[in-house]
Amino acid sequence: MIIKDKREPAVLLAGYALWAAVNLFRGFSVETIPLIALFTLLSFTLSSPYFPFVLLSSLLAVSSPVLMPWAILTASLPLCVSGGHTRERVTAFTALASVLWLVPVSFSIPLAVVGAMGVLLGRNRFKYLLIAAGFVLSAFFTGLPQPPRENACIAGSTIDSGIISYNIPEVNTSRPEVLLAAPKQGVWAVWIALEAGGVRDSIPLFAVRLGEEMLLLPSGTDTLSFTMTPGDTLALTLMRDFRPFNHSVIHATAGGERL
């Protein structure tokens, strides 16, 4: 215990000195204030199995301003629930709460709930169910993890004996736009069959655009026809961002023939 008492202030001062150095070389920013709580948590976990985990998160937070809020959340959220002492859980929640304003509001709601409940439940053995509950709340508020949002995707196509067929991927919130390019020669009559859904209203869900003409459509099924010449591009664009309890999606097939 004597060794622990001597090492904790040393780790604490080293962490504060590192925080001061970061602000000295990069310029002061209020976004680095959560690091103070993180370094305090690091000193409190010095003799616990969580120390390497918190240390790694601290180094990552210092080295990358972009990853800093996520590194702090990664270290503090588990300690809110599983910290062995009240001071560990309270300090972890302080770090969690101080960084929530740096992340999307909807994403912060389940984190705040889980962190606060972890501190309040203390040594209750059922507190570990909070982690699972946090994943469920996160799925409701922010959706399931998805691939990074892509730029416009170009649909593939094949031509056989004057007949064109397009291979159109699913349009969703991570792939919000797909482009169908006209063949390089000739005039083509193109049709596209659309099936859109995943929302609970009837306002326009997506847009179909060809040149300067644009058609806004709600969820449901539609079949449209167009005349396309070399240089034309038919764009299928989703107009919704992610919303809880909604999964905006468009399935499309298209083809045509040369006139």
Plain-language structure description:
This protein is 42% helix and 25% strand. It has 259 residues and is α+β, with helices and mostly antiparallel strands. The protein folds into two domains: 8-142, no CATH class; 153-258, Nucleoplasmin core domain (Jelly Rolls, Sandwich). The strands form two sheets. Strands 2, 3, 4, 6, 9 and 11 form a six-stranded antiparallel beta sheet that branches. It is elongated, with a radius of gyration of 27 Å. The N and C termini lie far apart (87 Å).
Keywords, separated by commas or semicolons:
259 residues, 5-stranded mixed beta sheet, Jelly Rolls, 6-stranded antiparallel beta sheet, 42% helix, 2 domains, single chain, alpha+beta
How is the secondary structure organized here?
Elements: H1 2-26, H2 34-44, H3 51-63, H4 68-82, H5 86-99, H6 105-121, H7 129-142, E1 153-154, E2 156-160, E3 163-167, E4 171-172, E5 177-181, E6 188-197, E7 206-210, E8 213-217, E9 220-228, E10 233-238, E11 249-258
Parallel strand pairs: 1-5
Antiparallel strand pairs: 2-3, 3-11, 4-11, 5-10, 6-9, 6-11, 7-8, 7-10
Helix pairs in contact: 1-2, 2-3, 2-4, 2-5, 3-4, 4-5, 4-6, 5-6, 6-7
